[in-house]
Amino acid sequence: MLKPEHSQPERLQEVNVTERNGNATKYNVMLDLNKISTYSLKDRFSKVEVKDFAKPISESTARNTQDWFNHFPQILAAKELKEFVLDVKKAKDRKKPIIWGMGSHVLKTGLAPLLIDLMDCGFVTGLAFNGSVLIHDFETAYAGKTSEDVDSVIGEGQFGMAKETGEVVNEAISKGTAQGLGLGEALGKHIAESSYAYKQFSILAHAHLKKIPATVHVAIGTDIIHMHPKCDPAALGVGSHRDFLKIAQQISSLEGGVYINFGSAVILPEIFLKALTLVRNLNYKVDQIVTANFDFIQHYRARVNVVGRPTTNGGRGYSFTGHHEIMLPLLATLLKASTTST
Prior knowledge:
The protein is α/β, with parallel strands linked by helices. Helix content is 43%, strand content 14%.
């Protein structure tokens, strides 16, 4: 069992908390976060290590896979996957946006190298994540591992109490938002400028270096960094709202482009629909678009907010069901294939 750095407080104490943005507002809470027990991330058992990550797809593999894929039937999901791949290639050829929204489980299944490769190949013009990507991207870059075993530690209140994750990620957010950045760029810039041993696996750092917008959309209280004393709720709010406006800006030019939702059941489908509504309200024409949802099962919000409602003015929506660690390598391989027709 991991040893905490200090003992649990004997009882809860009422404390006054002043907002860090300089406002005089105070509020009383019954939990003093300065007294939480933490442990080193490097000592924690993690279920995912970079040695098990996917490898980028070579051009020869892509060409051979395209030949194999052409033997799929022109029926149901196989036919639709062929058509979707062609739609994405057309968007790339026409220099239209290809925006990927995803839950961080995609990164926890070792797929960051494939996404980084797709960024380099021009198949990603924007990325949007839920808040937990801040944790998993940092832990991967810093320690070469992520995804703790929740079941083994939650009984002792040690879930999410990695010291470095709670301190460094929150500090990067506070520093970055003070510089006018959103959450995604704040952490991406921090990792890119760091000496972390595994930063080549950081999708946020790569996006920062490639100047590809990477936005993070937070529901406060859902991520482990919100339990740590260095969490600045004002910075989270400001940074997340900046990122909402940043993805809305991208969606304003989505006409003829593609939006892909990979593994987000709630947050990103809601973000996409609200951003799309905003830009249409501002009289941007975003009608002829292609959308797709990839997930283990087809959840309600992704089905209606990504595939259905956004394409009622035109375009087309697709739904594909399968494991991320299988579907994304397949999609990445097909996108990299040299032919432009199926």
